[in-house]
Amino acid sequence: MTVLTQPPGDGDGARIIDEPLTEALSRRYLAYALSVITDRALPDVRDGLKPVQRRVLYAMREMRLNPENAARKCAKVVGEVMGGYHPHGDQSIYDTLVRMAQEFSQRYPLVDGQGNFGNIDGDNPAAMRYTEAKLTAAAMLLLDGIDEDAVDFKPTYDSQDEEPVVLPTGFPNLLANGSSGIAVGMATSIPPHNAAELIDACLLLLDNPEASTEQLAEHVLGPDFPTGGVIVEPKASMIETYATGRGGVRVRARWEKEDGGRGTYQIVITEIPYQVKKADLVEQLAELIENKKAPLLGDVRDESAEDVRLVLEPKSRNVEPEVLMESLFKLSALETRFPVNMNVLDARGSPGVMGLRQALQAFLDHRREVLVRRARHRLGKIEARLHILDGLLIAYLNLDEVIRIVRYEDDPKAKLIEAFALSDLQADAILNTRLRQLAKLEEMELRREHAELAEERDGLMTMLASDKQQWKLVGHGLKAVRKVLGPDTELGRRRSIFEDAPTVDADAAIEAMIVREPITVILSDRGWIRAAKGKVEDPSELKYKEGDKHGFVVPAETTDKLLIFASDGRFFTIPCDKLPSARGHGEPLRLMLDLDDKTAIVDVFPHRPGTKRVIASKEGYGFVLPEEEAISFRRAGKQVLNAGAKGAAFALPATGDHLGVIGDNGKILIFPMAELPEMPRGKGVKLQSYREGGLRDAIVFKAEEGATWIDTAGRTRVWGEWRDWLAKRAAAGKLAPKGFPTSKRFKPK
Question: Chain-centre distance of CA 340, in angstroms?
């Protein structure tokens, strides 16, 4: 395959390369993937920013949009960023600026937005021509020292200017504000934390570089979301997450009970989980009520103003508040799980997953480098100033001669250099000195400045030669930042709290709200399901759609869970109170569950706690299944039996001590139930061996009661000689006795 790497008709074709298309595509796709990973999606572990965020902050600083100055139009900021640093769409830049200004998105907002910047309901912000912005104090902490050679700069996309590779970063912004992004083949998801707690952990690392994750977790208690909420993740789980850099955090809405008088009450939600849109949450709760999926909830109202206030009314005053909330936590976004995947770029630009300790150490290493670079920059300034002061002091010591040279010499600069061994800079400084600065007091001020700068120079040189002093100064800087972002400030106080999830059986409470009545579940041959009140005495009187017929008729109660066993080995669960009524022909089961037309229904029965079932495939494999293992309210059901190509055969109650099986070949085998293993899922063990065909039917019975079968006339026949067919499991068996139904089944299907 030929790959053309230049425009057609451009020269003699010297740049046309013959290479396999797969190699050309893979090489170019790798370049694209690396570009997305390093220049777009993943944050830098040192400042916690992606390139577009860093460019927005730097451009705003260059525009002098400091906290004490007036704000400017966001359109002006976006244009500056796009024109000078980030040659991409203006909407992506504005979206970044907006997010950094939203208090419900950023734990420590880096942009002070004025105007409509969206809200927690999910409404969009106003257009950039209407909004204004400037930097916050937290952003200034990230930028502090950027003019003092604290970080490296690189050329911008058009090489007309320079931009910082990373910001100096006065506090651990990566963990403080968190980050999220999707790259090519990898993603990142970092929750926000409390800056004061992170600084305390950094100070611990400075005192004890070998501190473990458990010790750091004594300071970093867990995420601190800008929207608050209640974190119910176990401490051990969070320590594991911080150690590996991967895991998750369960966060719930914060709520309180308000008494309404006469025994009534209502639930008021004051904080919702992070990144949940309040309007969507209200809509979700309303749908649960409408679809009768939340039987304990009566009504939901949004009474929010500036603060969140969602009011939930229970269906009955007899419902416990804790039970109501536990049921809603399971059904709605009132509880979410925030994924943690601390995938970041290290100082060399390589992506990787870091734990808490690694991320904090990388930040501290960066702060030390910034400290050293700023100190060297300051040292250079001091050396230059001392050099000038040395020349000025020489001039004061020889003032009369200096005045004579300046007044009478044709080239005073050269003469000064020759007479006093001065440099060009020193000579220029002397010649630029004003007459009024030749006073005695001015000389004393110069000597004082020289002494102070010399002392500062000596201190800086001592610090640069001592690793211990460098780390000590890093700690002093962090302590100063902690005063700005500390827990005693409104910005720094912890918002998310920690609680243990209460052990409340919400399912039992929901069932208690359902009126217990007898019903009959009717499932037709074509899969239409309905529930008739009471007991159906004569199933032959039931009516079906044209072309449809009798399938299953199962007595149950409204509080039961209906288990449906499919031929592919899956179990489905439907609450009986959710079944359509029998006034019509019901509803197609395949609309309620993920069932295709090729999958048949093998059995239908109500769940009975503590019951066990013998399930088997037509290939002749099976095991004993506790019914609790079959329950799953997912539309896709729960895969329990590896049914093989032939499908599932039966699911019989394990109410006896012997199992009799019969194959398509008409041979019967009986063996003790003790030979069957009890399993939650799998293929099972071989029940009977076949040369051809498979398993047809089975019966479970007690030895003292004996085995039976039902003949074609519907009469129960006692099988007195069943012990003659008793053998070990997996044997071939013997032909059925005389009089056994020709259908080769113990009971008619």
Answer: 5
pLDDT of residue 430: 87
Q: Are residues 352 and 393 in the same domain?
A: yes
Sheet holding 132-135, edge to edge: 72-73, 132-135, 111-114
- Does residue 421 sit in the same domain as residue 553? no
The CATH number linked to 405 is 1.10.268.10
Q: Of 32, 130, 274, 396, which is the active-site residue? A: 130
Token pair recorded at residue 202? 């950094």
Give the span between the Cα atoms of 188 and 36, in whole angstroms.
13
For residues 405 and 483, membership in a common domain is answered with: yes
Residue 742 lies inside a defined structural domain of this protein = no
Helix (H) or strand (E) holding 613: strand 612-617
Per DSSP, 494 falls in state -
* Two structure tokens written together for 302: 């949004």
pLDDT, tens digit, for every residue of 220-274? Answer: 999 999 999 999 999 999 999 999 999 999 999 999 999 988 888 999 999 999 9
Low-confidence ranges of the chain (pLDDT < 70): 1-14, 440-441, 504-515
Examine the domain organization and report whether 663 and 549 are in the same domain: yes
User: Last residue of some domain: 485, 500, 515?
Assistant: 500
> Does residue 396 have an active-site annotation?
no
52: its two tokens? 């577009």
Tokens of 43: 């944050």
Instruction: Mark whether 405 and 549 lie in a shared domain.
Output: no
Q: Within this chain, do residues 483 and 551 fall inside the same structural domain, yes or no? A: no
Tens digit of each residue's pLDDT (9 = 90 or more) over 669-717: 999 999 999 999 999 999 999 988 899 999 999 999 989 988 877 888 8
Asked if residue 383 and residue 327 are part of one domain, the reply reads no
CA angle 707, 713, 714 (to 5 degrees): 50
